[in-house]
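Justification of resources, computational component.

The compute hours requested in this renewal are based largely on the per-chain cost of generating structure records like the one below. Each record pairs the submitted sequence with a full structure-token output. That output is archived, and it is also reused by downstream analysis tasks.
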Amino acid sequence: MKGRLEQAFAHARKKKRAAFIPYITAGDPTAGRTVVLARALERAGADILELGVPFTDPIADGPTNQRAAERALAHGTTLPSVLGIVRELRFSSTIPVVLFSYFNPVHAYGLARFAVDAAAAGVDGVLFTDVPVDEADAAWEALKRVGIELVPLVAPTSTRERVKAARKLAGSFVYFVARTGVTGTRASLEEGLEDQVRMVRKLTRRRVAVGFGVSTPEQVSRISQFADGVVVGSALVQRIGELGDIAELPGEVEALARNLALATRRR
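The structure output for this chain reads:
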């Protein structure tokens, strides 16, 4: 039986669109609201949910996601509570969940223990922002034993050898960073992005989802013509930060996400 991630990409392809993968930070504005926001994103058309694990030193994140992590940590969000959010979500949703995390919280928790508990909670994939593919074997093996995919992260600066190494680790897809630097909204996309994505797909023989700096429906539409999935994070996280924990928050996030999801259609 195919896993939820595989099914999500296959379903999007059948509908002639790229998979829409929104990112939000777990625990922002609260743990309970994260579950509500996840359901709102699913209603808006999300195929896969990327859930950020807040960390005290998020070096790969721009100011927007850093502030979200700070808010989540201030509310007491920890790795165990993030797994609790996924468990709660599983009572009402089967949307695939990929945890976006730095390795330090997982190392402190215990890699083997984390893998078992994440699988029990209903996590489908894990992406480590600070573990290069040539150092990811231990994490890949621990996650594979419990049926969780490791999502390799490759960048425009990755060598061909490193991109090829991602093939062994990848399950349903690899995550391609649309530009060097940290997360955050950008007015334009990098030149040569389409060629880079095609090269990564050729070398890994896996689907490619593109993220980092993707924030508008126009950018989503452009990327959807050549990528298998599009990740949008900072635009959604910024809106959550602007509104805070108000009654209208889920509806506002759903409306924003729906416009992004509609843009994944292929021409």
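The chain is about 50% helix and 15% strand. The longest strand covers residues 19-25.
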